[in-house]
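Example record

One chain of 179 residues, shown exactly as stored in the release files.
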Amino acid sequence: MRLLLHTCCAPCAIFPVEYLRAQGYEVYGYFFNPNIHPYTEWLKRKEALQNYARAIQMEMFYDEGYQLEEFLQQVVYRKKNRCLFCYAFRLHQTAKMAKEENFNIFSTTLLVSPYQQHDLIKEIGEAAGAKNGLTFHYVDFRPGFRKAQKKAKELNLYRQQYCGCILSERDRYYPREKS
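Predicted structure tokens for this chain:
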């Protein structure tokens, strides 16, 4: 069965792709990440993914639009719920792409990260699937996270230090006051 996998970056793709292929899925990737800031970071992640996808012979779809403004419009004044809007933006677009390309099932590499909100991703993925007549395939890929990070390092893949959005970049690098 063909599965469209929303793919945020190469390191996060490693375990989900291996796992899904072992389960018998024909995995295709989809790079749609308008949340990533700055643009140079978006380019680094895209280039690393292109190289990795080529190396593992995974067919990819790339959304070449850099829709930062649309992402920011959704999260402005909603900082505490920014992940909800980010997940929804990306998963609804992935479902739409899956439907256009005749996939019946889709998932996301966001599910490999222990830093993401799995219950929320699952809820949004299922809603996006239902809206488009598709199945969202939820798998808790977190057990493979450390192994995939180690493999990414061995492969010398670009590994980012924050999820991608401007707010997570601030949270990662802005000095916090000590309490």
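Notes: The beta strands are 2-6, 26-31, 60-62, 105-108, 135-136.
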